[in-house]
Design brief:
5-stranded parallel beta sheet; alpha/beta; binds zinc ion; globular; 8 strands; 12 helices; about 280 residues; about 10% strand; 3-stranded parallel beta sheet
């Protein structure tokens, strides 16, 4: 397998911040990435959120049908829709391989969510969740609830593979993360011991970290020596992903000069283990 074919980006979107379907493929080519997990974003109450952009499952499938060798489709059916189980089974039958992006304004340990996470596990679909706490200026803009609520979901669904993602998940790489003080989405400076993210990744075999977004990049680069150590320590538990269209994360990871086996796991090996192609 060539290096480009081997690299998997576990977090992409289409028709999003200026990239249409061909634009997404051009981007993957430009950074040397073979395939991507392509996520929808579906919220039944999305209209309440000024930042919401409905990224439909239909758009994901249209892209998959056009570029079947490059796209691994996800279907993030909102658990509050009517008959969500039936819908997820239907999308699975049409070729969906994962359940995401889960980015809903409910606590992820609610029973509506747990029921769907368990079904995703039965169907062999990994679940990617976005966790974001409210900021004082935008008190209604939050997703998923507290990281401990997510931990309960991971514990309640041992047969489901989860990937943690976004600002407030990665803030907890550091022991001093404070949910009451999260107007800083991308905290700078040294990482202190005792973070929930290292604890959770070490504790739960069904949990992984999705390095995408400004949040994954910030978690690794705020304290680069720690970032490199973290990648080596959790080489079996974190996956390369971008969630936008830049090359900052791949540049940082390449610059770490990681052992070859660590690099290969993070850049595609773990994704292939989670979801055999
Ligand atoms: Zn996303």
């Amino acid at each position: 397998m060539s290096e480009a074919a081997a690299i998997i980006d576990v977090h992409q979107h289409v028709d999003w911040i200026g990239r249409d379907k061909a634009g997404l493929i051009d981007y993957l080519d430009s950074v040397g990435v073979g395939t991507c997990w392509l996520h929808s974003w579906e919220e039944v109450d999305g209209g309440l959120d000024y930042a919401y952009q409905h990224l439909s499952i239909r758009q994901v499938f249209e892209t998959f049908e056009k570029y079947p060798d490059r796209i691994i489709p996800f279907a993030g059916v909102d658990c509050r829709r009517e008959n969500p189980e039936r819908l997820l089974r239907e999308y699975k039958a049409r070729g969906a391989r994962g359940y995401g992006e889960i980015k809903w304004r409910i606590s992820y340990d609610s029973w509506d969510a747990i029921r769907m996470f368990r079904l995703a596990g039965q169907l062999g679909m990994p679940v990617t969740v976005h966790i974001q706490y409210p900021a004082t200026k935008m008190p209604d803009w939050w997703y998923g609830g507290h990281i401990r609520a997510f931990e309960r979901a991971v514990k309640l669904c041992p047969d489901t593979i989860f990937l943690g993602h976004a600002q407030s998940w990665w803030t907890h790489i550091s022991g001093d993360a404070d949910p009451e003080k999260l107007d800083v989405s991308y905290p700078p400076g040294p990482v202190t011991p005792g973070g929930d993210v290292p604890r959770l990744l070490a504790t739960y075999p069904n949990l992984y970290g999705d390095l995408s977004g400004g949040s994954g990049l910030n978690a690794l680069t705020r304290d680069p020596a720690f970032g490199k150590k973290f990648l080596v320590e959790f080489a079996d538990k974190v996956c390369y992903g971008v969630d936008n269209y830049d090359d900052r994360l791949i540049t940082f990871i390449k610059g770490c000069n990681l052992p070859a086996d660590v690099y290969a796991k993070i850049m595609g090996g773990n994704a292939r283990k989670i979801m055999p192609v």
